[in-house]
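pasting input
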Amino acid sequence: MSALSAPGPADDPWSKMMRAAMAGDEGAYRRLLTDIARIVRGMARAALARARMGDADIEDAVQETLLAIHLKRHTWDPNQKLGPWVNAIARHKIIDALRRKGARKFAPIEDFEEFLAAPEADDPHRLSDAKRLMEQLTPRQRDIVQSISLDGQSIAATAARLSMSEVAVRVALHRALKALSAAWRRSIA
Amino acid sequence: MRTADLIAALAADPVPERIRLGPHFAAAVGGGFIGALVLYALFVGPRPDIGAAVRTVWFNLKFVDAAALAVPLLMLFVRLARPDAKPGALALWLLAPFVLLAGGVVVELAVVPRAEWLTRLIGQNWMYCTTMIPMMAAPILAALIAAMRLGAPQHPALTGALAGAASASLAAVLYASHCPDDSPLFVATWYSLATLICMGAGALVGRWFLQW
C-alpha cells in the first residue's frame, strides 16, 4: 500500500525493487513478488466475491498474475511507477479467471489502493487448477520446477542431481514457466 | 503448487537479456515493409505516366494521406505493447488524415460537375485497389503481430485491428504510385474499404495470437 502512495516518479519502493530484481537481485525480486501477491490476492478476492464465485479460484488468479508479471517484465517502462503496470496485469488476469469460470458480466475492478493485503489461505488439500496444470509439464520440467520451488533447492544442486549443466536447468526452468502460462491460457478457450 | 513456491521458482529464473521494445518494433516494421516492397516489385509496379503524375496535387495527396495515417497508427500500436498504455493525445493525430481527405473530397465535389461524381468514385481500378493493398499489407501485418507477441496488450482484437490499419496505410503508400485514380472520392471510398478489410483480418489474427 505504502508502495503506491510514495511520491516521485518511479522512485517508489516497488519500482526500486523491480529495478534491483532486473539487475539480478534475487532476494529483492522474491520480496517484491510476495508483496504483489498479497495485494493482488485482495483484489481477486473482492472481484470473485462480487461475481458470486468461490474462494477456490483466488490463488489461481494470483499465480497467473505473478507468472504474467514475470514473463512480461520487459513491458514495464522504468520511468513509470510499477504500481499501475502491476494493476493493469492483475486486472487482465482476474478478468481471465472470471471468464474461465463462465462469468458473463464483469463488475469494474477497482485499483488496488482499495484493497488490504491478504495472506495466502493455508489449505494444502485444495486441488487447484495450478496442480492440474503442473501435470501438463513434461516430467523433466515438473521435476525441475518442484525441486527449485517446493524443495527449495538451488539451481546448482538441481543440476548436480539431474546431471545437467546449470545453463540447461535455467533454460528448462524458463521454458517450464512459459509452458505453465500457456497451459493456463489454453484452459480459458 | 503454493504461491510461495511459485515465487521461489520465478526468482530462480535468470534475468533475461534486456529487451528494448522500440528497436524490436522498428525491425518488425522494416522487415514487413521489405516484404511489401518485394510484392510491389513482383506484382504491382509504378504507373506508366508517373513522371507527369508527380506534378499534380491529387497524386501527391494520396501519399501524404497514407503517411499521415501510418505514422500515428504505428506509434499508437507500439504504445499498446505496455499493459498500462494510455492512448492520450496521440489518438487525436489520427484525425489529421481524415480531415485532409475530407477536405480533398469537398474541393473535388466543388470543382467537378455533378455528372462526373460517380465515374470518379468508381474509377478504373477499384477491384485492384481492394485486393492489392491487403496483399501488400499482409507481410507487414504478420510482422507487426509477431512483434507484438512480446508485448502485453490489454485488448488483443483491438490491437490486431490497429496493426491491420497500420499495415494497410503503409501498403497504400506503395499502392498509390501504381493506382491511376487520383480522385479523393476514389481514395476515400476504396482505400478505406481496403483498410477496413485489413482491420478485420488484424482483429481476427490478434484475437488468437495476442493473448497472453
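fyi Residues 69 and 89 of chain A are 7 Å apart (CA to CA).
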